[in-house]
Amino acid sequence: MKDAFIIKKTLNNNVVIATHPSYDEVVLIGKGIGFRKNPGDVIEREAVEKCFTLIDKKEQEQYKELVSQVDERLIELMNDAVRLIQKRFQTPLSEHIHVALTDHVGFALKRLEQGLEFNNPFLIETQALYEKEFEVAEEIVDMISNRLGVELPASETGFIALHIHSAVTRRHLAEIRQHSRLIMKLISIVESSLNIRIDRKSLDYLRMITHLRYAIERTMRGEDVSIPEGFEELLQTQYPVCYNLAWKLAKVMERTLNRPVHPAEISYLTLHLQRLTHKN
């Protein structure tokens, strides 16, 4: 009995709010776990498929409200989706994924009912930058199709992939989107400065945006980057146009991220830019 949970509130047949002497208030998920259950009833640990705490009271209330507003089938499906993400990445997830993913998919389904579809300006970049997250998002979209009979557009696969990346890295979605917008802005500056158009499906584009992604992440962490002695001066002399453009990109990154960009990043950006100019 000491490992049992006491129901505080039944949200639906598969989700209940309960109390536990060790964990305080928790959300319990399990097929049929709330069926014909009342406050005060006992649920044994063996019946629980998923137990999580929403420490943030605001988030806790959001989840309770969300569960009461969406189809039970969607709640069950999203819980299965979170388990799939956990299985694929084998790492603790931010528990906000329960609220964020359920809310997003529920809203997407409503938009489709109304004949509306949101454009995803980061779709190609998301697929390239977060390949594994995108593959898992495709699995989740297939689950939605098979169990709810709704075909989500490719744009939604990209959005779901960003939610997955947010949960896996425990980074806010707003920060991830900011970085995606920054990458697109930097690419636009490159194309206009060099008077070229980079094929969005090319290996060069994949290499460029991947490098920009990790340069941004290193900058956010304040990570040191090493280069051979004299390398920067050599690049500055041999490739002045690309070096000056790399310096310009670094300044845009600094203003956007409000962080100093390590000087060595300029050298590595110069090499990527030189490759682009050579091929174009």
TrEMBL record:
<protein>
    <submittedName>
        <fullName>PtsGHI operon antiterminator</fullName>
    </submittedName>
</protein>
<dbReference type="Pfam" id="PF03123">
    <property type="entry name" value="CAT_RBD"/>
</dbReference>
<dbReference type="InterPro" id="IPR036650">
    <property type="entry name" value="CAT_RNA-bd_dom_sf"/>
</dbReference>
<dbReference type="GO" id="GO:0003723">
    <property type="term" value="F:RNA binding"/>
</dbReference>
<feature type="domain" description="PRD">
    <location>
        <begin position="69"/>
        <end position="174"/>
    </location>
</feature>
<keyword id="KW-0677">Repeat</keyword>
<dbReference type="Pfam" id="PF00874">
    <property type="entry name" value="PRD"/>
</dbReference>
<feature type="domain" description="PRD">
    <location>
        <begin position="175"/>
        <end position="280"/>
    </location>
</feature>
<dbReference type="InterPro" id="IPR011608">
    <property type="entry name" value="PRD"/>
</dbReference>
<dbReference type="GO" id="GO:0006355">
    <property type="term" value="P:regulation of DNA-templated transcription"/>
</dbReference>
<dbReference type="InterPro" id="IPR004341">
    <property type="entry name" value="CAT_RNA-bd_dom"/>
</dbReference>
<dbReference type="InterPro" id="IPR050661">
    <property type="entry name" value="BglG_antiterminators"/>
</dbReference>
<dbReference type="InterPro" id="IPR036634">
    <property type="entry name" value="PRD_sf"/>
</dbReference>
